[in-house]
Amino acid sequence: MQNKVVKINEACQTIQNGETVAIGGLTIHRKPMSFIHELIRSGKKELHLLTLGGSIDVDLLIAAGSIDRIDAAYVGLEILGFAPNFRKAVEGRVIEFNEHTEYSIMAGLEANLIEAEFIPSKLLIGTDILKSLNYKTFRSPITDDLLVAYPRICPDVAIIHVQRCDEYGNCQINGINA
């Protein structure tokens, strides 16, 4: 098996402009900041960013002009409020922002994992998020309940900060698992 350990700049070179990049961690916790800095240094543009809860990572990428779309449940600096570059870019319509719930992102990733077109759920029924994401609804063939079809989310690459890994790509995360 080939050794999967590479330098950050080499890994960053595999990302192409316009690709969808999923970033792990939650708000200020376990964000791959060295990789974020390398993305900025390498001049990547028009990235589509996917994250559950973005923070300084997203704000720096926006300030650098690296992102043109973000799908997230939250972007902010926790007790310090909204991330300023994010807020300015969304209000000025410089980037496209699609607000999700954490569940809608996780369901979309799960659909991709199991090679399904969507994951069905009753969550989001009657919410504005359902309307803004333009998800499809349908009737259950078993109960006739109204369900939401959470579509598959297929990032091109995922960047996840871990405490330990080996040359085969196995990793271990200590502490919180966001």
UniProtKB/TrEMBL annotation:
Name of one Pfam family that matches: CoA_trans
Alphabetized GO MF terms: CoA-transferase activity
PANTHER family: ACETATE COA-TRANSFERASE YDIF, CHOLESTEROL RING-CLEAVING HYDROLASE IPDB SUBUNIT
Name used for this protein in its record: CoA transferase subunit A
UniProt organism field: marine sediment metagenome
